[in-house]
Write a structure and sequence with these properties.
Number of helices: 7
Function: Hydrolyzes ribosome-free peptidyl-tRNAs (with 1 or more amino acids incorporated), which drop off the ribosome during protein synthesis, or as a result of ribosome stalling.
Structural class: alpha/beta
CATH superfamily: Peptidyl-tRNA hydrolase
Keywords: Cytoplasm, Hydrolase, RNA-binding, tRNA-binding
Order of helices and strands: EHEEEHHEEHEHHH
Number of strands: 7
Family: Belongs to the PTH family.
Distance between the termini: 32 Å
Subcellular location: Cytoplasm
CATH topology: Rossmann fold
Number of domains: 1
Largest sheet: 7 strands, mixed
CATH architecture: 3-Layer(aba) Sandwich
Helix content: 25-40%
CATH class: Alpha Beta
Protein name: Peptidyl-tRNA hydrolase
C-alpha cells in the first residue's frame, strides 16, 4: 500500500473556538471530510482523524489515500500530535505532509501554497517545526488579514469570523479544499502553478 498524504488543519479544540479565524485549518479539513463522506474520530495520537480518498487522478482513477487530521490539543501544542501521526502512518513530512493554517499576512480569503519557510509568529507552525526538527513541510496559508486599528493580534484571530463575512468564508473554504485535492493528486508544484502564486 502506498504511503498516504497527511493533511493537518490547525485550530483549537473546544466548541467556543470553532468559528474563530484561527480555526480555518479545522474548517478546511471539515469540508474535505464532508466531500469524502468520512467522519473524524479520535486517534491515540491526540487528534481527530479520518481516512479518505481525495480528488481524481489524471486519467480518472480515484485520488490517493489521505489522512485528514485536526490536533485535539491547543494550537501551541500542535507539534506532538502531528509528529505522532507522521510516525504512526509512516509519512515523510518533507514530501507528504500538508498543514493548513490561518495567515494574518495575507488578505482575507487569499490562498497561498509554499514548501518550507518560517513560522511568521504562528504558534501552531512553531510547535510543528520544533517537534519535527524541520521547517521543510508544505503549508496552505488561508488569509484572514491583519487586525483593524490597534486590536491585539491574538484577540483578532481568536474572535469569530463576523456574520457578514461567512458567505465569503464558505467559498474560500471550498477553494482551499480544491487546492488540497490538487496537491495530493497533481503534486505541490503543479497545484501552486494552478493557484497562480507562490
Amino acid at each position: 500500500m502506498s504511503t498516504p498524504w497527511l493533511v493537518v488543519g490547525l485550530g483549537n479544540p473546544e466548541a467556543r473556538y470553532a468559528r474563530n479565524r484561527h480555526n480555518v485549518g479545522h474548517m478546511v479539513v471539515d469540508v474535505l471530510a464532508g466531500r469524502a463522506g468520512s467522519r473524524l474520530s479520535r486517534h491515540k495520537a491526540r487528534a481527530q482523524v479520518a481516512e479518505a480518498r481525495l480528488g481524481t487522478m489524471p486519467g480518472g482513477a480515484p485520488g490517493p489515500r489521505v489522512i485528514l487530521a485536526e490536533p485535539a490539543t491547543y494550537m501551541n501544542a500542535s507539534g506532538g500530535p502531528v509528529a505522532a501521526l507522521l510516525q504512526f502512518y509512516r509519512v515523510d513530512p518533507t514530501t507528504r505532509l500538508l498543514v493548513v493554517h490561518d495567515e494574518i499576512e495575507l488578505a482575507p480569503h487569499e490562498l497561498r501554497l509554499r514548501q518550507g519557510g518560517g513560522e511568521g509568529g504562528h504558534n501552531g507552525l512553531r510547535s510543528i517545526s520544533q517537534a519535527l526538527g524541520t521547517r521543510d513541510y508544505a503549508r496552505l496559508r488561508v488569509g484572514v488579514g491583519r487586525p483593524p486599528g490597534r486590536q491585539d493580534v491574538a484577540d483578532y484571530v481568536l474572535s469569530d469570523v463576523p456574520a457578514r463575512e461567512r458567505d465569503a468564508l464558505a467559498v474560500t473554504l471550498e477553494q482551499a479544499a480544491d487546492v488540497v485535492e490538487e496537491v495530493v493528486t497533481l503534486g505541490l508544484d503543479a497545484a501552486r502553478d494552478r493557484l497562480g502564486r507562490g
